[in-house]
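REVIEWER CHECKLIST
Item 1: Sequence provided? yes
Item 2: Single chain? yes
Item 3: Sequence as submitted:
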Amino acid sequence: MEYCEYPNILSMFCDPTTSVEIYNLIMNLKNNKAPGPYNIGSKLIKFVAREICNPLQCIYNLSFEQGIISDKLELAKVITVFKSGDPTLLSNYRPISIFRHI
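Item 4: Structure as written out by the authors:
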């Protein structure tokens, strides 16, 4: 999906990310976070962090440069969480969107 129909290079600038920055972000993920839509938990992502940092760096930097975000990166799993009261009433539940970790 294009988020900049008419890119203006002077309107905003994002410094290119580095594989070190991505690695540090991955390693700071909490282990108890719920897995994303493909049930990949943060422990597994941490385990393969060194192998995925360079490809992620290329993807993120191209996205910044070209103004395009893949539809696959916008995917979320929606679950319901019980608040309180009568569990048979839908109004006693709230939706939670679980986005991909990366």
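Item 5: Key structural point noted by reviewer: Strands lie at 76-82, 93-99.
Item 6: Recommendation: ____
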